[in-house]
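Folding Problem: From Residues to Backbone Shape
Fields: amino acid sequence; protein backbone structure tokens
RECORD BEGINS BELOW THIS LINE
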Amino acid sequence: MSAGAIHQLLNGYAEGDAISACARAIRDAARKQGRASEIYAPLAHVAPASRGDCRALEEYTGRPGEIALHHYSIASPAVERFLASPARKVLVYHNITPAEWFNGFDDGVAARLADARARLPAVLAAVDDCWAVSEFNAAELRACGAKTVRVFPLIFDPAPLDAPTDPDVQARFAARLTTFLTVGRVAPNKRIETLIEAFYWYHRTIDPFSRLVIVGSERSCPRYHTMLRMLAGDFDLPNVCFEGFASPRGLPTYYRCADVFLSTSEHEGYCLPLLEAMHCGVPVIAHAIGGMPEAMDGAGVLYNDLTPAQLAVVMRDVAKNTAIRAAVLESQARRLEALRARDVAAELKSLID
């Protein structure tokens, strides 16, 4: 490792993961500045297809004069390796999902989240600098005692979304049904049950020629995933499609097949899929909570305090009302223009300097 190097320590690493994508963008920007830069993660939590792009956490040995970045969101061995490094330590805060969302669904994950939350003040006291991917996250760090926090918004790289269409996904959704889509971890804080209930109202009272597509690995929280499937069965909804993990070609194809993207999440530090949907020309409806209003930045449709039946009406307006849909897409085009103008390399250089 060379002096001036910037290395990143992650809890895990995988294609399609927002934190992993952010780490790759930082690594690439650092390398363009002539710095050595690698990503390290516990191999047990690195997707097999991504192992060639990531080094084992055990290989990391920081040196004075280097910079170590840790993307903090849950307790993991990467935290200990990061805190023990003699390099200048920078905490990149992606938010910690409140542990209570996982109680009863995955008590092991709940314990790791609770541990990360309890240790946060001590971790903040041990680092040299803090970056937060949203002002929402920055406010949380300040409340935990951080003296200086700088906002470095989650990096959005649209290039992977321009991949060729996956013919299998396209064939499965070739029938012209009004298609509502959600993408992300299938986890309790996402409140996908609210979306299923809203879709029930839409499908039963507005448009029977419709479907709901849920893209996300069932491994994130298997018990929650099972509960959602049971709920769809209780509602006797034939058109709720649990698609699991999306391949690099599959993900943009799902977006291209969608008429409306929705997030009913109750806790988000930022939420990158909102921007992915915008890039693919899909109007977005999102719960106005956490970091999602910052990610939207005036684009799309934000809602609050709606019942599932009321949300179904919003879904109808965005899907079917030509004027409303055009206005939503125009607002998203402006947001994308601002994102394209962002100079990530200059921001990173300024933060490091």
Summary: The longest strand covers residues 67-72. DSSP finds 13 helices and 13 strands in the chain. The mean pLDDT is 94.
